[in-house]
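Q: Can I see a sequence and its folded structure?
A: Here is a first one.
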Amino acid sequence: MIQPAFPIPFSDDGTPPTEIRLFTAGVNATSKGPVKWTARSAALVQAEYVARGVEKFADYEHRSLLPLDRQQEHATLAAAWYRLDVRDGALWAVDIRWTPPAIEKLTAREFRYFSPAVEIDPKTNEVTKFVNFALTNNPATHNLPALVAASEGI
């Protein structure tokens, strides 16, 4: 059963969230087909995260994933820094610290959504590696809530 996304809690002043649920436990619908977040996914992602010992970063439009010869200037600039956490079987980005340019872009509604970058086991459709998430306006994951509301009071 595909689980729908639930709204991200916004601060009273409309600032971007400090926590984002990246994947629900089970099947997550995407435009690239179903992606499964399982106990195996959690174990693999947590093990790599702990072994690397560095915080994760968010980028813009997955530009940091482009081959070096195709990257534009500033392609690897961070939009945010965060830690990973697994809660009730779901993967979360927590303690998100947005950079000033990212806050400005989100507040101006230049970006409204996020998109996780992962590696998938082609046989099981399970997430086997979490790379990062990007600010985007065209997320592959279905039913994502916006990072900031469309207008005041929403």
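Q: Show me another, different protein.
A: A second, unrelated one:
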Amino acid sequence: MNVLITGCDGSLGSYLEGHFATSGWDLGDKSNVLGMPKSVHTKNAIDVFMAAFYGEVSRLHAAILNDGINHLSWIGTTPEEDENIMLRNVMAPYWTLNALVALRGRTNPMRVVFVTSQTYKVPQRTTALYCASKAALTQMMRVAARELAPYGWSINAVAPGKIEDTRMSRMTDAQVLELRGWTEEMAHKYAQALVPMGRFTSRPEVANIIESVLNLPSYVNGAVIEATGGV
């Protein structure tokens, strides 16, 4: 197995799994992709998963830390369970990287891509925790690159804008209508008007960007590759 993909059973994760199984990036068939499902997101579960696949983990060339969640709420109405956004979007990828380094050793480097979001720097209403989690994830990536680059690790992030045809986008769109009282057409026009290119990105486009980042020279390290259509 050559590449680990977290959140492999999500909309983007499942697409990435199929993409890297056939992309030719040191891969021949799906047996070269180690998929970590969304249900594996606590430290204990991640450690157990990694230990169970120790042989595959030791042979990995890359990891795509893709899993994440969101829930919209106005400040003042946020339910307590929304603290899971921080746990899933920040701690889960941290524990995944921690387990990879612990099991492989620092001197057995690999390439890592964190899938973050344009919200690491673009504030959006009703997403305070999500934006905070992506900002934290981005800074975590930079610290990890600084710490592990001397051992040959290459760690970067891809920050896409809204990705069409994903479960998270559909959920977010539905919540926007509910929270703001807009029609679907109003919400769509407003969101697209904020993108200079006048369109959103797609799963194939994001997969190609991630693959390109994995193939960049190793001196590109600790970088955020934005895919926002000019936002």
